[in-house]
TrEMBL record:
Record keywords, A-Z: Coiled coil, DNA damage, DNA repair, DNA replication, DNA-binding, DNA-directed DNA polymerase, Exonuclease, Hydrolase, Nuclease, Nucleotidyltransferase, Transferase
Family per record: Belongs to the DNA polymerase type-A family.
Domain 3'-5' exonuclease: 363-557
Gene Ontology terms for molecular function: DNA-directed DNA polymerase activity
Protein name: DNA polymerase I
Residue ranges the record marks as coiled coil: 218-249
Annotated InterPro entries: 3'-5'_exonuclease_dom, 5-3_exonucl_a-hlix_arch_N, 5-3_exonuclease, 5-3_exonuclease_C_sf, DNA-dir_DNA_pol_A_CS, DNA-dir_DNA_pol_A_palm_dom, DNA/RNA_pol_sf, DNA_polI_H3TH
The keyword Coiled coil is assigned to this record: yes
EC number: 2.7.7.7
Binding partners and assembly: Single-chain monomer with multiple functions.
Classification of source organism: Bacteria, Pseudomonadati, Pseudomonadota, Alphaproteobacteria, Hyphomicrobiales
Domain of life: Bacteria
Domain 5'-3' exonuclease: from-to ranges: 1-269
Amino acid sequence: MHLLLVDGSGYIFRAFHALPQLSRKSDGLPVGCVQGFCNMLWKLMEDLKGEDEPTHMAVIFDHSAKTFRDDIYDQYKAQRPPAPEELVPQFPLVRHATRAFNIACIEQEGWEADDIIATYACQAKSAGGKVTIVSSDKDLMQLVEPDGSIRMLDTIPRPGQPPLRWIGADEVFAKFGVTPDKVIEVQALCGDSVDNVPGVPGIGVKTAADLINQYGTIENLLDHVDDIKQNARREKLRENAELARISKQLVTLAQDVPVELELSALQRQPVEPGKLFPFLKAMEFATITKRLAGLIGADPDAWEPDPALAAQPASPVGFDNAARAEARAARQQAQGRDALPVVVHAREQHEKVRAIPWNPDTYEVLEDARSLQRWIEVIYRSGIVATDTETTGLDNQTADLVGISFSVGPGTGAYLPLGHHAGDGDIFGGGGKAEGQMDLGEALDLLRPVFADRSILKIFHNSKYDLGLLRRYGVEVNSIDDTLLLSYSLDGPQFNTMAELADHWLGVPGQSIKELLGTGKSQKTFAEVDIASAARYACEDADMTFRLWRILKPRLAAENMTTLYETIERPLAPVLARMEGRGISVDRQILARLSGDFAQRAAAFEAEAHELAGRKFNLGSPKQLGEILFDEMKLEGGTRTKTGAWSTGADVLEDLAQKGVPLARAVVEWRQLTKLMGTYTDALPTYINAHTGRVHTTYSQHSVLTGRLSSNDPNLQNIPVRTEDGRKIRTAFVAAPGKTLISADYSQIELRVLAHIADIQALKDAFEEGLDIHAMTASEMFGVPVEGMPSEVRRRAKAINFGIIYGISAFGLANQLGIERSVAGDYIKTYFERFPGIKDYMDNQRRRVKQDGYVMTIFGRKINFPNANSSHAAERSFVERASINAPIQGSAADIIRRAMIRMEPELEREGIEADMLLQVHDELIFEVPEGTEEAAMPVIKRVMEGAAEPAVRLTVPIQVDAHAAKDWDGAH
DNA sequence: GCAAGGACGTA
DNA sequence: GTACGTCCTTGCA
């Protein structure tokens, strides 16, 4: 008999750390260890032939309950960190794999795998058999027999070493300096920090081996402890005699486990293709499948992937995405199928994290270099740290760093105060630096390597803010996760703030910064908060961030959002941080001149309006204007807003002006001019940063339902362009001296995306041939040749094309074109007849949103519509239109996000110096050295045009137009 | 001091 | 008809 015992649990942990590349299957589930495990199994079957061929075989796992060792020593394995996130879902899968290979899969409550292995090995040896233990765990080395009847085999792949490495008595001696039967004595003396076996302090492996070789056993050693010459060693042994005895009990493997399966039941069974291939296919292990099919001479195509394990493309019905995954898991269980391990894992994580208590008393304040260094060591050991910067303001371009908090796990926290002011918060008192704070420069020097280290994962909430801030302090950050972007990838802009996330996921009230800082006149900055309160607030933030990460990260795999997050959202944040940091140059003089001009002209219109109205009134008040027009002047055709006030929108006034009401014209003109002043010529200069002399917008990556960015403080995505006066504002956006601006914009990106998604051949052909798409549409619809087409005809077709993208309705189109609703309805009907695919697309989205509660972009971004089945008809119609628009707008947004992520490395690769400054939905603005425009533009175009590839192969050409000039108006 | 509503700038 | 952010007035605290 030859018994092969595989240490399954040991394999998983060691393989995880030995195999850096983590393969994932298509739903994002990490399966690297499962893959390694399967590879090992079939290689063992292949390599152990002839005299080494096992007749009996089993894979042994730890059971996750307590063992007898916990009763002996309550600290046993207490230092073990929780299993890595990526590893947890793989535990059940490795057991699945074992059964798929038709091998006995053994675990037993109350016993470690090692004890079960020892028991079977002992039984087999007594029966005169040979035993091979597949493991590299030194704890098992005590079982090795010098006569070769029990050997170990190390199969963990290691570079530069043979795939199978036998461990016999010689190898054990090399490791412990004693024969295998003395291994437990040595282990008991020197202890094991990993398992938290205490041992005798001050005694390492070498000393232990010397002592055991001299005295044979621990008991004999302790009996003769007086003979030991070295004073310190003798005393240590005396003092810790009991610890040594306990340690020996801990390291000694039980050989009498009441195993449930007899040895004979472990007899090897032939591989059954019906068990094997459904598993391998569900894991998407194509290579292993092929190899094994060849080895056992079976056709894998005869089997389908195991549905309980296979990746699933979409989530089920519902509103909340997590609830959807839950519902799917429940249904699968009701059908007698196991829930997907990733789903189970995500749910368990959530429950586990919610159960962890809060204890702010354990948070630490790092007052000096020593305590910071100690925490840095903690961070290195953990490999993962949630971190948060506290500053004096919401704008990371101007705010000062006040402190940094860290958490290495739920319930842990440390705060490093750096810029707190002395005094009681009174701006006249103190003003100096508060006591108990490290020097900022010294602290950052210590932290720089931590932030830069790629092997340490830094978890932020809104990483863009911290990245931009830290960059100003010369701190580079690598390897990040971002709970805000995790939440956005999973649930959209539903939850934005830490407080909302904490409330929803952790069931605790999120902290309010307002309580700490106050509001209004008496508001202080974070620098004025006392360090103790600041520490509590900051640590709680980092702690919450860590907890949220533990809950949200596993949901990525469970809900198929890993790719979106890892290839789009996470990499984009640092790109945006850099764009915000660069800012753009704005010419004060130009704006000042414009402002003066606009003010004069506005004043004239205001005087004229007062004259025409017969009295003075506030032109800025729609209420007063409405009363004058419709109550006092009794003009016809006034409509009311939903709150009952008179409508005085531009379209209404334009209408009145057409009908000969000069007051309406004057107000329209006044509004335009004052709008330009208030929002642009007067407001923009206040945003010029005193240090950089440039305007730095803040992008929001997580606010828009469809996946677009938004821009605020100031909004640089709504700088005027449509009117002549408006365009003048763009001339104030200028290149720095010696530089040139380049504007590159996607041409008709949304219509092209529509043509692709809805698969409209006529549209695709038109784009392929580079036709005027609106003229082509008009020609198709109205039968008018493109040559010599009246501009009004083209204008209508253009409005219809836009209408389609917006989820057209006869009402809206009629409004837009100023035509009868019935005529608009006829246009739409004609359009659908000409392009029947569009109708199908729209019906599909409507159906999907009602059924699933969401629609998707071509890159897998989900857009949620909780009200899809609202009882309110208007709301339902709104959702229908939005669900038609969202995949179009969102796919275009995904494309430009991908372009932005790739742009900087591509430019660098091509040796082109170009700074990406702004994004305006379908346009990117760059600043390049004068004279390099011609070199930069083709590269920029190429990256933008190819941005969908290779993830999505678009069936329409994408076209980007680029222009260079000294100012934005000229470049556009 | 703040929230809501109306109006209007962009894609 | 889609998606945003900002300014101003109004009304209430």
